[in-house]
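Late entry, written up from scratch paper. The run itself happened at the end of the previous shift, but nothing got recorded in the book at the time, so transcribing now.
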Amino acid sequence: MVLGLQPAALAPGHPAQVLLGAVAGVPVGYLDLQPLSPAAVAAMVGLRTGRSRAVALHRATGGNPFLVARASAGASDAIPEEVYDAVARRMARLPAATVAAMEKLSVVPSDIDPALAVALLDGDLAALAPAETHGLIALDGGRFGFRHEVVRRAIEARIPAQRHRRLRTAAAAALLASAPRLRPGPEARPMAHRAGTPGGGNSGRPAP
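Output as recorded:
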């Protein structure tokens, strides 16, 4: 039997935890799969998409083979339906407060300084804990970010347009308010560049 598991998604009480406990003491081989390297992504999709897009795919997917395969299937940068569906299934298992927090972060197209995250979430960083447990959010080098850029885009695209505009306005205000406490980072330029962008439509799929 071959079983694939994503450790970050094995929250306490997950059915797979019972299975893992049942096979304790039984000879089991474990293979720790690492993300695809840029060269591996290029080898996987380069003939179909061209090397420059293969590099962009690695940056957007973090080398996740499922996301690479689905995102490379289309001819454009639009996010495939399979990716939307996968993200939607994982979001459905999260508390409403966590979903709302992720939507607030998704309108910032970069990793986020903790001071800005505190301002965006009104100090409720604990709301992100379930998203981190499920492998959607990561804290890397002291900065919050989505584990994969395509996940951020899929979440942003599902936000209705009017709410998206409100979130972007709030994010711009939070950026200005927290600027004195921010460490140097990439937030300001993308936010300024996209401040007038209409909501929920940067991926090719209309928001619900």
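The longest helix spans residues 161-178.
(Scratch paper discarded after transcription.)
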